[in-house]
Amino acid sequence: MRKVLLEAFHQANGGFVSGQNLAEIMGCSRTAVWKHIEELRKDGYEIEAIRKKGYRINKSPGKLSGNSILLGLETKMMGKHISYHESLPSTQKIAHKLADSGAEEGTLVIADEQTEGKGRLLRTWHSAKTGIWMSLVLRPKIPMHQAPQLTLLAAVAIVQAIEDTTSLLPAIKWPNDILINGKKVTGILTEMQAEADRIHSVIIGIGINVNQGLEDFPDEIKETATSLSIEEGQPISRTSIIQSFLKHFEILYNLFLKEGFKPIKLLWESYAVSLGKEIKASTLTGVLYGKAIGITEDGVLLLKDDEGEIHNIYSADIEIS
Ligand code: BTX
Hints:
By secondary structure, the protein is an alpha+beta fold. It has helices spanning 2-11, 19-26, 30-42, 66-70, 91-100, 149-165, 228-232, 238-259, 262-271; strands at residues 46-50, 54-59, 82-88, 108-114, 132-138, 171-173, 177-180, 183-195, 198-208, 278-283, 286-295, 301-304, 310-313, 317-320. Helix 6 crosses helix 9. The longest helix has 22 residues, at 238-259. The termini are far apart. Bound molecules: ligand BTX. The site of ligand BTX has 28 residues, from helix 5, strand 5, strand 8 and strand 9.
């Protein structure tokens, strides 16, 4: 019922919807409509009521919910099914389960808080309330070796969403960190379910620090992490960031499926901070120093060492010197 009510407001595009109209759409009495409106108000929606005009939503709540994301979401597929949870160990786990049981492409799992947020290589991702912790289920028909390109694609969509919603200028550090003023605001973890050379699903896990204050970060990341609101100096709507991310992601994903990685690579390069710089790459097999000279068509980082030898870096932590 609530979903129908929010959809009716969405259709009205910020305008008024009369009580009578809402009663017809919802198939209930006007008194019942009023009760549902009161419920929305309790959840933080600011709803104006004017005699003879009806109701209008002036402001959606800062609180996250599946419905507030759906209200105003401009996608055909991404985020059309949302599994929202107040607190979870990790959205990745739920997304894997949903993918196993046949969830549609574009299904999104979101939590207000994660108690066991995962980074890459079994690292911890701190996921206090007021950030965005989400996992997107994809079912791309692509060869397995192309799956890591989706991490780079997601990074571009996040940068575009941050640019849409704030005045900040984010930059990407290969492969998956988004930095603002040199500090990490986002991490991306791409996991895959596959068999032989067939991808069943790709789960893109995204963590964005949105409204945390410095005091919300544990000591070990206070120097290296930041949030959008710290950088912008005011609270940022998580709902707007998620909606904008899903919109950009869908456009880029369709482009990627049609034309491959090339157009995504160009966009990614335009946001990259590490290219052309001297870097230290810590890989699982050792540490390499040299200049980051570019990425390949497959999204692999190219590092040229002092002897002029070029190394392909598939997975590493990068420090810019
Ligand atoms: P990563 O391995 O690149 O980054 C992890 C490292 O980043 C940690 O070791 C720590 O130094 C630092 N770090 C941890 N938490 C934060 C934070 N909140 N802000 C800035 N720096 C931090 C990046 O891994 C991948 C992160 C994916 C997180 C999403 S959230 C939704 C989904 N569910 C889940 O469990 N993980 C993903």
